[in-house]
Amino acid sequence: MLAAIVFAFLWSFALPPVPAQQETFFKEIPPPLTDVSITVNPEALVNQIDAVLVYFQQYKNQDPDAVNAGLFSQQGISLADVEATMRFLKDTVTEDLKNKTESRLADPQFLKKHFRFFQWLPHPPPTPSDTSGAAHSPSREMIKITKYAVFTIQGSLKKNAVFKYALYSLPNDEKGMSLQEAEKHKDHLCRFRYTKQQVLAGAYDQGGAEPLAWVTRRGLEEALMEGTICVELPEGEKRFFNVDRGNGIPFDPTIKNHRLQQRYWYFGQVRQPQGYGLDIGSQMPIFPGAAFAGDIDNLGLGKVMGVFYHDPGSGKPKMVLGVLSDTGGAFRPNLSQLDYYIGVLNSRKEFNRIVKTLPSFAKVYFIIKK
């Protein structure tokens, strides 16, 4: 992790504790949109909503832990309300794009007319020391806003003196198995047998898992930390790789040196950066400027969110709209943090430059169609 930025560690399969149902996690309020500049990326938002709706359609029965109303059921909100909100947004944006008019989602009056706003109350709330870097009156109602990206690293399809660490595919003895089948046979599968250090020491040198690409040790750690990586090959071709399944060893937050972590991930090649899914075959694509990662287990996929903050440069109020489309080990459970997807970047320097324009803490509102 970099400084105070917490990156999502994807696909932890242990069930999280469920918060006490009598607690209050949201409160409905009048739309906080006076003099607010609303940021929306229409094309990205439509694409992200489409990806979530496809996941709902295909995996609603297989993944009820993620495809549900979540804690919003306490507010009388159903999964049908969540879907109706996304479909209304999609129809609105699609119509505006077709007519080549400015997006109505950037109009505060339009949002006030068509949507209910529920403020997210963090659990636990941030302390004054937590919010010391926040602009404009740090509040115990603020949500921690972290950011993540897909980084581009150099690599090769062949092992050499520079690129000598593999991104391995799922071991051969597990290919074709569902997650449920794999769990039943975990005592006999290679995936659960080796730590990261054992893999790096040559556990698959004689076969058992196929190398997808070869990278540096630093590149390997980047891929394991971020979950998705873009590998640029010597001839200039770029390939995306996403985590598939892990070795079952949890990330240990007490180990600060990531090279010493025993957790290890196997990868698969994908066409573009992927977000949430049961496995690599079901993971949905994510789009910069429209995707958030968070506590899907408690909030549920597909919630439309507005992140309200004051611009670090101008001090003017802004709101960014997006959809809850991703998660990670940092969110199991975590009802006080949200991760904003920035996109595919070439360097940490570029990442840090963008992060400076975004808040560390913000008020977050869930938006539901009236």
What does this structure look like?
- The chain folds into two domains: 38-146 and 285-369, RlpA-like domain (Barwin-like endoglucanases); 149-270, Barwin-like endoglucanases (Ribosomal Protein L25, Chain P, Beta Barrel).
- The radius of gyration is 21 Å and the shape is globular.
- Residues 1-17 have low confidence and may be disordered.
- The chain has helices at residues 42-59, 79-99, 108-114, 179-184, 196-200, 217-226, 296-299, 348-355; strands at 26-29, 37-39, 115-120, 143-156, 165-168, 211-215, 228-232, 238-246, 265-270, 291-293, 304-310, 317-326, 337-345, 361-369.
- The two termini are 40 Å apart.
- With 370 residues, it is α+β, with helices and mostly antiparallel strands.
Features:
single chain, 370 residues, alpha+beta, Barwin-like endoglucanases, Ribosomal Protein L25, Chain P, 2 domains, six-stranded mixed beta barrel, 21% helix, globular, disordered N terminus
What is the topology?
Elements: E1 26-29, E2 37-39, H1 42-59, H2 79-99, H3 108-114, E3 115-120, E4 143-156, E5 165-168, H4 179-184, H5 196-200, E6 211-215, H6 217-226, E7 228-232, E8 238-246, E9 265-270, E10 291-293, H7 296-299, E11 304-310, E12 317-326, E13 337-345, H8 348-355, E14 361-369
Parallel strand pairs: 2-12, 4-7, 4-13, 10-12
Antiparallel strand pairs: 1-3, 3-14, 4-6, 4-14, 5-6, 7-8, 8-9, 10-13, 11-12, 11-14
